[in-house]
Amino acid sequence: MTCEKSKQWTHANAVVLRETGLLLRGASGAGKSALSMELLAEARRNGEFASLVGDDRIALENRNGRLIARPHVAITGSIEVRGAGIASVAFERGAVIRGLVELAAGEDEEWTRRTELLREPEEICGLLVPTLLLKRRDWLSLVKIALFLQHLESR
Questions:
Q1: pLDDT tens digit sequence for 128-141
Q2: How far is 92 from 100, CA to CA, in rounded Å?
């Protein structure tokens, strides 16, 4: 994805956990919204700051060497809860994205045996973004993302 113009739109979710912005990307039905809600709830249970930036459509731009995510104006503050409809949630109007969580589309054997979850950083808008790979609906997603956050925050 290039962001040669002012911004590019991507099919993803963005959240802020503590002080770290994460982009959650995957195919439709991969669980981006459900994982976003789980991450927000878990952080709040732990007394940590957490907020949605946007659900489904995220504007990305390179601003002075930082990847900035913003929600789509038409759906700001809303998130789709599959089977229950659209919910209103607290949100941030933008965030600096420090990591990408890629939700894998398949359930192939490569994913079940893989031990290294960190992938080579992905270039987004001319910036290298650390990337974590997750299977769809992985029961350890929250644990793996917590470890990924520690990795990002230690950099």
A1: 999 998 887 777 88
A2: 18
